């Protein structure tokens, strides 16, 4: 079981350290971890945010545990050298088009939600976000127009096959849950979204057992806060999924709790090759202070065991340890408590 560990920048290395401790504590037979540089740290050491050696390491692994990238020291670099390009590059180079972001409220955290406790209690959803297309990967640029103004553009586009493969991921995920799928787009004004909606409806014919609904993204954001319990699986594009998942994180209490799996079509000897990361970024405002909540990354390691190594028992064991720690009142600053990153890691390990 070869796991490439890419801690990245800011709190990325702090939270990844705790997830690695958890993986090591499980005594998994044949577990091999190797570490690579991504993001600002890679730029400063090797001149590129995603060095060739890191990419080669990623391709040689069965799964990747990723922290986060991004650092103010790189704010003025050209876009292709910025740390964030490392995560986009890995997602596209490795064909990781299906991003699963579960959001469930943990017992004891109902009061920490941005929502009323009775609403928070109803949250148990999975956001299925397309990860290889949309404005992040379209043609983009900046120029000075004839009248001397600067103009920037990012092309939003999706091909039919890109929508179809993520729609299949969404329907399959819905089948494993309560068989309700809500597709989120902006088909009232965007051609991309009209195609999205058409293809999702066509794909639905293959899943007659799944109940399909549609929402425009602005309404979906409002509904997430008004009545989050109505959602089971949300299927959406790269940009909308990015924004809605940060919103969902505060509905369950903190961005420090939301894990993710990024999957493609490659199968290994153990399961589906994937990259696993918290949904948050490198949090420069708290980096280096030992304040970050590592639970999202620990839960990402659980998703790795489930999807890439077919080890449901160990995945559930990690999730139970996190749930138990939260039920016992283990809290970092993000949840109104005082515990630091390694103390939270210790608390999860004790319960494991
Ligand atoms: N996948 C990735 O590597 C991502 C990278 N980024 C990058 O991260 C950098 C910072 O971006 P922001 O917009 O500030 O988003 P962010 O997610 O890093 O932080 C947003 C807020 O949430 C807090 N926060 C995040 N994770 C936390 C945790 N585990 N525990 C406690 N508090 C936590 C931060 O302190 C901050 O106040 C940027 O360079 C951005 O591009 C952002 C999102 C994802
Ligand atoms: C660099 C960003 C596109 C990463 C991000 O915000 C995310 O994937 O949630
Ligand atoms: Mg994001």
From TrEMBL:
The record marks 136, 186 as: Important for catalysis. It comes from the Bacteria. Its main location: cytoplasm. It is an enzyme of class 1 (oxidoreductase). GO terms for cellular component: cytosol. It catalyses: (2R,3S)-3-isopropylmalate + NAD(+) = 4-methyl-2-oxopentanoate + CO2 + NADH. Substrate binds at residues 91, 101, 129, 218. SUPFAM superfamilies: Isocitrate/Isopropylmalate dehydrogenase-like (SSF53659). Gene3D superfamilies: Isopropylmalate Dehydrogenase. Belongs to the isocitrate and isopropylmalate dehydrogenases family. LeuB type 1 subfamily. Catalyzes the oxidation of 3-carboxy-2-hydroxy-4-methylpentanoate (3-isopropylmalate) to 3-carboxy-4-methyl-2-oxopentanoate. The product decarboxylates to 4-methyl-2 oxopentanoate. This is 3-isopropylmalate dehydrogenase. It comes from Pontixanthobacter gangjinensis. The gene is leuB.
